[in-house]
Amino acid sequence: MDDPEVRNTTAAVVNTRAPALARACGRTTWEAKALNNLGRSHLLRGDHRKAMPHCREALALLEKLGTDPDGQAHAQECVGDVHRDFGELEPALRHYREALRIREELGNHYTRAGTLRRIAAVHHASGDVQAESNALRHALAVLDRLDHPEAGAVRTAPQSAERGHRAAVGKVDFVDLEHTAARLGVPVDEVDRVHRLAGDLPSAPLPAKADAPALLDRLSVPPEDATEIMAGWPDPDSPLWTPELRWLLDRSTALVRADLDGHDWLPPGPELPRDRGPAWRHLYVYVYLALVDVARRYHREHGIADAVSWTTLADLGRNLAVDRRMRGEGWPVMQSWLTLHVRGGVYELGRLQHQRGGDAISLHIPDSGPLTPDAVTASLDEARAFFPRHFPDEHHTVFSCGSWLLDPQLREYLPADSNIIRFQQRFELEPYEEPEGIDADVEVLRFVFRTLTTPLDRLPRRTVLQRAILDHLQAGRHWQWRRGRFPF
C-alpha cells in the first residue's frame, strides 16, 4: 500500500541509504559518489552544514582510491559549492581550481567549461569583474571548440560582466538569478543555465484545466498521479506556485521547445526538492503537458499517425507509475528522458522505443511486457519502414543499444533460449569500456527491482533473473553496461 507520508519523506532519505548499500556491495567508488550525491542533496535543500562532511568524506575516499579522477573533480566541485554558498570564496576558488586542473589533465572539455563558469561565479561574488570576464572567455573558447549549443548563450556573458552585471540574455538579471536559486534550493549555475538557454524564447501554454483530466487519461497517467497533478495545477491565484516556480515552468518549457527536432538527452532544468508539494513534484510534468500540442503538431508535419503519437507520448504515465513504485528515486533520470518525446526524438513502435541520432537508431526497452523475439522483430521491421518514410533526409545504417541487458555475464545464469539471451544474440558488442556516469549495478537494481536503496538481502528472489542479479552482486561481482549494434 502506498503511504503518502512515507512517500513524501522518502526522497529526503534516499541518498542517506545509498552509501551503506554501496559499502555492502564492496564498491568504494560508488560509495564515494553516493556520499557526494548525499552532500549535494543537503546542499540543494539549503542545509550546508550537513552537506560539507559528506562532500569532504567523498573527496577523501576518492583521493585515497586514486582511480577515479573524474569523481575527484566532481567532489572538489561539491566542496567548492558548499564553501561558495557559505560565502567562503577563497576556499571555494581553491577547490574549483583543483577540479579544473584534473579536468584539463583528463581532457574533459565540456565539464572543464562548467568548472570555469563556477570560477566566474566566485569572481562575480567577490566583485573581480576582470577575473570573471577572463574565466567566462575561457569557458566560451572551450564550448566554441566543441560547437556546443551553450556557446551562443555564454557568448554575451563576458561583455555583461565588464559592465558589472550578467543580464545580457533573458528576463531576469543576475541578482534575481541568485535569489531565484536560493528560493528554489538549487545551485545558481543550474538556474543560470536555464536562463541563458531559454533567453527570451517563446514558451507554450498549458492546456485548459478543464481539458486536463482527459489529456492525463490519454497519456496513461495513473489516477493517483493525475489527482496530484490536478491539485497542484498552476492556476493564476494558486498559493502553491511561487514566482520562482512560475518562472522556472515558463523558461524550462521554452528551453525544451527551442530544441524541437533534437534527439539528445536534455535536462529541462535543475532537480527540485520534490517533497515540498505537488507544484515542486510535478513541475516538469507541467512542462511536458504544455508541449504535448507542440509535439503532436511536429508529428503531423512529418506524417506520423496519431496512434504512434499518442502511444509514444503515453510514456509519461508509465514513467510516473515507475517513479511511484520507486518512491521518487527514479525521477531525476526521467525528467531528462521525457524531453525526447516532446521534441520528436523518440518513438514507441511496438515493443521497443526508437531514438533518432546520427546514423544509428538507439533502442530502449520500456517496462511493457515480455521481450519476446517475435515482438522485437516486429518492432525492428516497423522501424525500418517508419524512419525512411517520416525522416527521409536521415540515413540510418545501424540499430544500437547500451544496456546491462547486453552484459555477457548474464549467460552464466539464464537459459540460452531466454528472451534476454536471444535479444543479446542480435548484437555485435563493442569492446568493453566502463562508461562515464553510469554504474551498471545501479541500473540493474533500478530496472529489475525498481529500487536503489533496499538492502540486497531484502530484495525479492522470485524470478530467475532476480536470483541471478542478486547472486552475482552478493558474490562480490559487478554487472557491466555494454554497447552493441547490428545493421539497420
CATH class division of the largest domain: Mainly Alpha
> How many β-strands, per DSSP?
6
Structural class: mainly alpha
Under the CATH scheme, which architecture of the largest domain would be assigned? Answer: Alpha Horseshoe
The CATH superfamily of the largest domain is identified as Tetratricopeptide repeat domain
Query: What is the overall shape?
Result: globular
Average pLDDT works out at: 85
Task: Kindly state the percentage of residues in helix.
Answer: 55-70%
Description:
The chain has a six-stranded mixed beta sheet with strand order 1-2-3-4-6-5. It contains 24 helices and six strands. It has three domains: 4-197, Alpha Horseshoe (Serine Threonine Protein Phosphatase 5, Tetratricopeptide repeat); 201-344, no CATH class; 356-488, Aminopeptidase. The protein is mainly α and 488 residues long. Strand 1 (346-349) and strand 2 (352-355) form a beta hairpin. The relative contact order is 0.07. The radius of gyration is 23 Å and the shape is globular. It has helices at residues 4-25, 28-44, 48-65, 69-86, 89-106, 109-126, 129-146, 150-154, 157-162, 174-184, 188-198, 212-218, 223-231, 243-258, 278-281, 283-301, 306-313, 315-325, 331-337, 339-342, 373-390, 419-424, 440-449, 464-474, and strands at residues 346-349, 352-355, 360-364, 398-403, 428-429, 482-487.
